Amino acid sequence: MNIQIVLFDGFDLLDAIAPYEVFTAAAMYSDEAITVKLVSAEGKRMVSSGVNQLKLQASGNLELTCKGIILVPGASGSVDYNGPDSVPVKLKQAAETELSNLLREAIKKPDILLSTVCGGSLILAMAGLLEGRHAVTHHMGMGLLGATNAIPVHARIVEDGNLVTSGGVTSGLDLALYLVERELGPRIAHAVEQLFEYERRGTVWKAVGNTPKASQQEEDISKTASDHAINQTADKVHFQGKWDTIISTPIGKLSVLFDLSSKDGRIVGAARQGEEIVPLENPELEGNQLKWSMKVTKPMRLTLKFNVWIDGNNIYGEAKAGMLPASKLMGHRIS
């Protein structure tokens, strides 16, 4: 069995080293030949982690011809979302390298199991690889995970076919122990647990078995939200018209033209960015503010949530995607 742990600039040390030790220990107890390698998309090189720039040696390229397990760690850095040393920025930088193309090919291969630790799933999500897939990440990134049209599941480990993700800074231990049990059996996994004096945490979530009943409180909240949406009408605030706007994102400014109108007393609309036209999803008026969701592909595949308000012929507001910094929106009515 071949196990490749992928390093990228800013990777989290614990996310990579904890699974490395688990898999190496499993090799001691197994008659099956097990190879554990640290690799990178760029090949053999020293790779700086996000922990005090401590470096590890990648022994070679990430190889897609080797059947087995590919494990992608998360990043380590500042929790200041606007800073260049922040975790979201490091994950996005990794997603913009050749690593995304390699992972895009890897996820298609039936003999490769793709796994991620903590924020590693966000690299796949930012590359548009988790749409419609169940996954988990660090709790601070669950909103962003959902914004990429993945299906966030609040569990320690989530298995979705050939994709296994884990959430939490220390989840690399749990993920690796589960993969050892999955691939080599519970007796080998148990032996590693005894060696480490550590027992795997949490239930492995899978989309199988009976679905839990929703609580009455959840049903009431859902019904209230639905009733509220139905009662919103477009005649309360004059949002109608075409709006020329600039959205200032952490990675540059986007020029977007919004076309808002009223149909059957409700706000409808679309957004144009270049040649791309995207409909607004579920626009709702709350007081003097208009809120909607919108799927975009630039600068990455995301579902953005907008909150805007009007001052005469000027429009102000923000767009938000999960834990990414809010992007300011400003513009004016042109017709």
From TrEMBL:
Pfam families: DJ-1_PfpI
Superkingdom to which the source organism belongs: Bacteria
GO BP field: regulation of DNA-templated transcription
Domain DJ-1/PfpI: 2-181
UniProt cross-references to CDD domains, sorted A to Z: GATase1_PfpI_2 (cd03139)
Gene3D superfamilies noted in UniProt: 3.40.50.880
Name of this chain's protein: DJ-1/PfpI family protein
UniProt cross-references to PANTHER family, sorted A to Z: ARAC-FAMILY TRANSCRIPTIONAL REGULATOR (PTHR43130), DJ-1_PFPI DOMAIN-CONTAINING PROTEIN (PTHR43130:SF2)
Species annotation: Bacillus oleivorans
